[in-house]
Fold:
Amino acid sequence: MKKAEFLELMKEEGGFESRKDAEFALDGFVKAVQQALAKHESVELVGFGKFEVALQKGKSGKVPGSDKTYATADKMVPKFKPGKVLKDMVVKEKAKGKAAKSSKKK
Structure:
């Protein structure tokens, strides 16, 4: 789903009067999450999930086809862990999709 489609969905589900209002809300949410993660703070939305930063260990390896090796440094990366309500909704929707596909085959 592209941003424009998502904004239309937000407008309908969130009860916004205009697409512009939905866009302001989305932009505000994204900026707030970005600022929190930049400060290495987590953002937990009960039922939806948790945005956090995690340490990704550096790696070393060999370039295929040559004798060159490389190494990457440790770094902090953003991470999202879905909540139980979100997981359950996705599983339920997936089951609906499979049921609809199997009924079409008959």
